[in-house]
Specification:
Layout (H helix, E strand, L loop, with lengths): L2 E6 L4 H11 L7 E8 L2 E8 L2 H7 L9 E7 L14 E2 L5 E9 L2 H10 L9 H16 L3 H11 L2 E9 L2 E10 L4 E4 L4 E4 L11 E4 L4 E6 L2 E6 L4 E2 L3 E3 L15 H7 L1 H9 L3 E2 L4 E2 L2 H4 L2 H5 L3 E6 L1 H18 L3 E5 H4 L10 E7 L5 H12 L3 E6 L5 H5 L2 E4 L12 H21 L4 H12 L1 H10 L1 H11 L4 E6 L4 H15 L2 E6 L16 E5 L6 H13 L3 E7 L5 H4 L2 E5 L7 H19 L18
Parallel strand pairs: 18-19, 18-20, 20-21, 21-22, 23-24, 23-25, 25-26, 26-27
Antiparallel strand pairs: 1-4, 1-10, 2-3, 2-4, 5-6, 6-7, 7-8, 8-12, 9-10, 9-11, 11-15, 12-13, 13-14, 16-17
Bound molecules: fructose -6-phosphate.
Fructose -6-phosphate (F6R) binds next to helix 10 and helix 18.
């Protein structure tokens, strides 16, 4: 959460920073700001609201500078406002700082500073850390770099910070723990950002800064040190990302672009791995560690949100195909309880961003207990990818819309391949079933294309139900987690209250909610549960609920029970969730649009949840 950008070099810093902030706005959009330094003059400009509002407020301001830092905020400490916006200025006005993360012991530090006579202009933990750094600098008569190092040894929590100093005309000091930082290396210039998207058009050479590292960044020099002041050789990697991947490409929103990209993102995910004709799946992360995986006593899946829903589907698939017990847990719960993790347990971590704080900390904890971590991650080079012992990328490309869509289907495709691979080696799946699932998986991109061709039908359904105040989503078996995902998507994009349930649970309480005003979305594709879910539809119909169903083409029964339905191509029940989720993504998108919501930046949310 929160996006940070920094630049030092010979270009004008402001346009580079502004463009970068627009790219990082998915990380938070409560307020934004920049600090620009030129000839000993340090100017800080900030504004509540989206980056466009900052841009407008900058008209006529002095923006001439070759060094600067910028921030787009997702509020934690202190409401969204001009005064809580970053950058913050130190008490003397000589330092400016931006921060992504949370300083957990800020209250104690603040109290000490207040006792010393400091007063604060904002409610943020960031301003506390900044004045703490300045206090150390002044008392010890030390350089900014030294003061930052001393301060960071005394704070707990997560941070990525960038600082500039009035008396230091070309240097940015940066440090991270728990929040991401990438440094782009140009010719006589450096770019700093939360992810590579603000950097990609200037250079493809980047350094991913690790936890507890501090960077001293000048136009011609990048020095990395640990908090013990020892130099570290920067490890330069080449970005494998094109500019087009982070632009809207003619679509109105990133979300719809990303929904429509799914035939190709799923294809990219399968490409080079799945060979249905030969009957093989090649995944180096699995192949190299196959003994560990097939001998797992237990698999635990840790994730949050949409990724957690992918984990629930994987639980059903892995237990079915591999006969290994699977537990799926919210990373945020796992990290604070006293879970039993033994050597021989395999943890599968699922994350689009690879930076979700709860997942990351949960993994650190599991790793300490000797678990083997297999990461299913989208963002290449991210923290979760790096902490994993092995893994498989989802290859969905940058996902910018706040609601996760293409990353989810990529996760399902990867998890299916992992399960099939383990099952094949373990001998827990018949040759016939294995081959038919491989063939089915190979056909998924084509089937997704067919579903997307009928997107307009979902738009009509969305128009009809856009004013509902509540929705229920019901499914059984593999489609139960899809119901949860459909409800989550609708909540976040349309602000309509929605709940997902296993259809059979209705009778145990939620059916009391049903009346003629309640739209109930059934995921009722043809599978072993079909007759049962048809009975559940009857129960809703008898109580006058409005039924919207996702059915299999050729189904003669479910459409007759539905007020509205959408048909998808037939698929094996293990594969079906990759298809059934697509109309639900479209439904939430079109309802959100019909309600005039900024679907790429819905209120209160941020794409990458790097705070707990
Ligand atoms: C919902 C959504 C979130 C994320 C969750 C985990 O559309 O995007 O629920 O799935 O914050 O994020 P990652 O997958 O980046 O760990």
């Amino acid at each position: 959460m929160c996006g940070i950008v920094g630049y030092t070099g010979s270009r004008q810093a402001y346009p580079v920073i502004l463009k970068g902030l627009k790219r990082l706005e998915y990380r938070g959009y409560d307020s934004s700001g920049v600090a620009l330094l030129k000839d000993g003059e340090l100017n800080v400009y900030k504004k509540k609201g989206k980056v466009a509002e900052l841009e407008e407020s900058m008209i006529g301001k002095n923006i001439d500078a070759q060094i600067g830092i910028g921030h787009t905020r997702w509020a934690t400490h202190g409401e969204p406002s001009d005064r809580n916006a970053h950058p913050h200025s130190s008490a003397s006005g000589k330092l400016a700082m931006i921060h992504n993360g949370i300083i957990e012991n800020y209250a104690l530090i603040k109290q000490d500073l207040v006792n010393k006579g400091y007063s604060f202009k904002s409610d943020t933990d960031t301003e506390v850390l900044l004045n703490f750094i300045e206090d150390i600098q002044q008392n010890n008569n030390s350089t900014l770099e030294e003061a930052v190092r001393i301060a960071l040894k005394r704070v707990t929590g997560a941070y990525c910070i960038l600082l500039i100093e009035q008396d230091n005309p070309d240097t940015i000091i940066a440090a991270r723990k728990g929040s991401p930082l990438v440094i782009g290396i140009g010719k006589g210039e450096h770019f700093l950002a939360s992810d590579a998207s603000p950097i990609i058009e200037y250079t493809k050479e980047v350094v991913y800064v690790n936890d507890y590292e501090l960077a001293i960044v000048k136009p011609d020099e990048l020095i990395l040190k640990n908090l013990g002041n020892e130099k570290i050789t920067p490890y330069i990697t080449k970005l494998d990302m094109e500019l087009a991947a982070i632009e809207k490409g003619g679509y109105d929103h990133f979300m719809i672009k990303e929904i429509f990209e799914q035939p190709s993102t799923i294809f990219d995910c399968l490409r080079g791995r799945l060979d249905a004709k030969e009957g093989v799946i090649r995944m180096s992360g699995v192949d190299k560690h196959i003994d560990q995986l097939i001998n797992a006593n237990r698999i635990m899946i840790l994730a949050c949100g949409t990724s957690w829903h992918a984990g629930l589907i994987a639980e059903y698939i892995i237990e079915e195909l591999c006969r290994i017990p699977v537990e799926v847990e919210y990373a945020s719960e796992f990290r604070y309880r006293n879970p039993i993790v033994n050597k021989g347990d395999v943890i599968i971590a699922i994350s689009q961003s690879g930076e979700t704080a709860d997942t990351l900390v949960a993994l650190e904890k599991a790793k300490e207990n000797g678990a083997f971590i297999f990461g299913v991650v989208n963002a290449v080079g991210s923290s979760i990818a790096r902490i994993s012992n092995a893994g498989a990328y989802t290859h969905a490309g940058p996902e910018i819309g706040v609601a996760s869509t293409k990353a989810f289907t990529g996760q399902l495709a990867v998890l299916m391949m992992v399960a099939l691979n383990i099952a094949k080696h373990k001998g827990t799946v018949s040759d016939e079933r294995y081959k038919s699932l491989l063939l089915e998986l190979e056909e998924v991109p084509e089937k997704v294309t067919a579903i997307l061709k009928n997107a307009e039908d979902i738009k009509i359904i969305a128009e009809k139900y856009k004013n509902a105040s509540d929705f229920l989503f019901l499914g059984r078996g593999y489609n139960f987690p899809v119901a949860l995902e459909g409800a989550l998507k609708l909540k976040e994009i349309s602000y309509i209250h929605a709940e997902g349930y296993p259809a059979a649970e209705m009778k145990h309480g939620p059916i009391a909610l049903v009346d003629e005003n309640l739209p109930v979305v059934f995921i009722a594709t043809k599978d072993v549960y079909h007759e049962k879910i048809v009975s559940n539809m009857q129960e809703i119909k008898a109580r006058k609920g409005k039924i919207i169903s996702i059915v299999t083409e050729g189904d003669m029964i479910s459409p007759g029970l539905s007020n509205d339905y959408f048909a998808i191509p037939p698929a094996d029940e293990l594969i079906a969730p990759i298809l059934t989720v697509i109309p639900l993504q479209l439904l939430s998108y079109y309802v959100g649009i019909a309600k005039g919501i900024d679907v790429d930046k819905p209120r209160n949310l941020a794409k990458s949840v790097t705070v707990e």
